[in-house]
């Protein structure tokens, strides 16, 4: 398959797309948190893979790590482009204020709070930690495959993944609950019980 792809066999490349497009899409969504951006990343990833097909090693197993590595780089480029676009838009004159519809949207989306909490926790991770987390945990790559996709040593993958898991666990801990202390419960109930005797 790798040889066919390197030789520009469109049918082979179509098979690769059919096999791995969903995996690339899931990886892109996990990195971006946005459905439409993930779709763009998939398109650009396979376009870039076709362009770089002659760099694919002839030897090796699945091309999935190669594609996920390309998707990671495409996502980085998309983020840079988005930052530039946001900066350019910020320089434009301000438009009239639009009425706030946040309450209406919040009423329809039950999971928004939890999703925001998770996304905030992910944003606190360093980019290399997010990338390793996305490859190893969400996309199911082994340490060696993730290392190959990112072009880093296996030990670096392990340490980044460990740090990412520790930071996420700490960020997603539920806050300490405030409320009635167990010892106060008897005192609060006693007058009512005495009145019923």
UniProtKB/TrEMBL annotation:
Residues 17-84 form the RNA polymerase sigma-70 region domain. Residues 172-197 are annotated as: Disordered. CDD domains: Sigma70_r4. The keyword Transcription applies. Residues 117-168 form the RNA polymerase sigma factor 70 region 4 type domain. InterPro entries: RNA_pol_sigma-70-like, RNA_pol_sigma-70_dom, RNA_pol_sigma70_r2, RNA_pol_sigma70_r4_t2, RNA_pol_sigma_r2, RNA_pol_sigma_r3/r4-like, WH-like_DNA-bd_sf. Residues 180-197 have a biased composition (Basic and acidic residues). Keywords: Sigma factor, Transcription, Transcription regulation. Belongs to the sigma-70 factor family. ECF subfamily. This is RNA polymerase sigma factor. It comes from Streptomyces flavofungini.
